[in-house]
Amino acid sequence: MKIAFFGTPEHSAKLFQSLLETQGIEVLFAVTNPDRPKGRSKTPVFSPVKQAALEKGLPVFQFESIRKEKEKALEEFARYPAELYLVFAYGSILPKEIFEFPRFGTINLHGSLLPDLRGASPVQTALWKGYDKTGISIQYIGEKMDEGDIIQEAEIPISLQDNTGTLMDRITELGTEHLGKLLAGPRTNPFVSRPQDPSLATYCTKIKPEDRILDFKISAREVHDRIRALAPEPGAVCRFRDKRFVLHQTRWTGEREDRVLPGKLKRMDRKTLLFQCGDGLFLEILSLQPENKNRMSASDFLNGFRITEEDRFE
User: Fold this and answer.
1) pLDDT tens-place string over residues 204-227
2) Is the CB of residue 86 less than 8 Å from the CB of residue 94?
3) Is 219 labeled as ligand-binding?
4) 127 annotated among ligand-binding-site residues
5) 113 annotated as a binding-site residue
6) How far apart, in whole angstroms, are the C-alpha atoms of residue 92 and residue 163?
7) How far is CA 247 from its chain centroid?
8) Which of 132, 149, 154, 155 is buried deepest, with most CB atoms within 10 A?
């Protein structure tokens, strides 16, 4: 099958590279976000999908707004007669004129079991809400976000130590497996699909800067879920001794004290540091990042900071 690929970040590039190597699939071109400045030099950097496409000598198209530039886009795409468009983490909503343009329409790989968690942050939101399972949905793109008919779905279990990075790895791996089989070889008819039940729909939004700020007055489970939902990027933040800290990874302990001081730090030994949450339970810190420093383990933090009984995260 001849396809075009729409995607931008690293996980999208992993799927893209796998499809390039799958027998029976021919990728004709890639569409990705414009180059963005990065680092102190603010030098524009290619997206991972663009880098992978250029390495294979494929045409790459980039639009500041594909909605506003749809006529230009369609003119370019018409030169490469793809039968199907595939979207995975592209970062922009496609107008109807584009997603209906190829012979078999446009399909999307979504990181949840639709119609649950439609929207921009299904993986982060599943962790934030403490789900014990999620999955992938391969669906047709329609005029409304993530409401298109479902072609395939598959479940993925979530452990207490999963974060957005590890869960995205498994979503990408499972999506790659299913799409490789779905798209390989010639096709004469559209994919068999089923409509979603709108009465079961839930929605999620983009992560906002204020979502990163931790509130230690809530339960330990809620704090743990928020930290892993925001890991590895952008990271959950708090303050310690008037400095900004990022908490990257915590572990469930079951440790509890009746006297509740949310954010209170408790040193167990030379390597182990806990903090208390609003329900009296403590979480263990596995890694964190002080302001203007590199990410470090709890033991490294304890070597550099003398913790007292009065210390707490704010």
Assistant:
1) 999 999 999 999 999 999 999 999
2) no
3) no
4) no
5) yes
6) 24
7) 18
8) 149
